[in-house]
Amino acid sequence: MERPAAAGSCRVGALSADSVGENERLESIQRSVDDFTVQVIEGLPIAESWNCLELGAGAGSIAYWLARRCPDGHVVAADIDTRYLEAERAGNLRIQEADVTRDDYQPGRFDLIHARYLFCHLPERDGLIARAAQWLAPGGWLVVEEPYHLPAENSPSPLAQRVLAAYQQKYRERGADMTWARRVPALLSRAGLSDVSFSGNLGCMGGLDKDRWAPLIGQAGPSLVADGLITQTDLDGFFRLLQDPEFIDIPQVTISAWGRAAL
């Protein structure tokens, strides 16, 4: 039974939908990861009649793609804040304001459930995987994509080390676990799913036009400075570093894992 979302979840404070640069951050994620996500989903036996649930739909790129890819099915694009989603993009697309930590769906409803960069931010994330698995139709697929942050101290730049360490600390203080992605394949299996598999996509910091981290640090940076985690000099120096053609780093890996409900 679907019901309106309650307030809360991860999108509050410096990284909320209200914060300056949030739309740019979401679009940066889409530019960086959408091709990988589409490749993963196209690797499944996807059909035009599938009914899909996009959890944490963000700025909507994957929900819109699913609506085009499954024209004879329907797509529910759910997010705690739906201001960046456009229902008119497709006739088979429905936008739902929902909090996955509180809202529920009818068991056996969806052929595909996809979530990206969502569960690692939420409390009781292990249990939420098991809940989501129950919403799958027989033979349906659950695809979970999460970031795995590499140790900040391994960055080739001491300045990037400080900024990344502050960024990771900020997330930890907010209750996120940016290394939780490693647990997802096992959690899918424990939830009763079969054909569990996984893949990875390397993130890029620096590399000039390949960089994805300028919008992320641009949004979070003022809060990191205000909290004393870095200095304004560090923040300014970081953006100069991103303009250095010799600087390139791998700050995280996006791990995509998927499993199938019993027929």
Task: Provide key terms for this protein.
seven-stranded mixed beta sheet, alpha/beta, 263 residues, 33% helix
Structure description:
With 263 residues, the chain is of the alpha/beta class. Helix content is 33%, strand content 22%. It has seven helices and nine strands, in the order H-E-H-E-E-E-H-E-H-H-E-E-H-H-E-E. The longest helix has 21 residues, at 22-42. The two termini are 23 Å apart.
* Structural class label: alpha/beta
* Total of helices: 7
The proportion of strand residues reads 15-25%
The span between the termini is 23 Å
Low-pLDDT regions: 1-14
The pLDDT mean sits at: 91
Give the proportion of residues in helices.
25-40%
Strand order of the largest sheet: 3-2-1-4-5-9-6
H-E string: HEHEEEHEHHEEHHEE
User: Biggest β-sheet: count, sense, barrel?
Assistant: 7 strands, mixed
> How does the overall form come out from the CA principal axes?
globular
Radius of gyration, Cα only, in angstroms?
Answer: 18 Å
Number of strands: 9
Concise synopsis of the structure shown:
With 263 residues, this protein is α/β, with parallel strands linked by helices. 33% of the residues lie in helices and 22% in strands.
What order do the helices and strands come in, and which of them pair?
Layout: H1 22-42, E1 52-55, H2 61-69, E2 75-79, E3 93-97, E4 110-116, H3 125-134, E5 136-149, H4 158-173, H5 184-190, E6 194-202, E7 205-206, H6 213-226, H7 232-241, E8 248-249, E9 252-260
Parallel strand pairs: 1-2, 1-4, 2-3, 4-5
Antiparallel strand pairs: 5-9, 6-9, 7-8
Helix pairs in contact: 1-6, 3-5, 4-6, 4-7
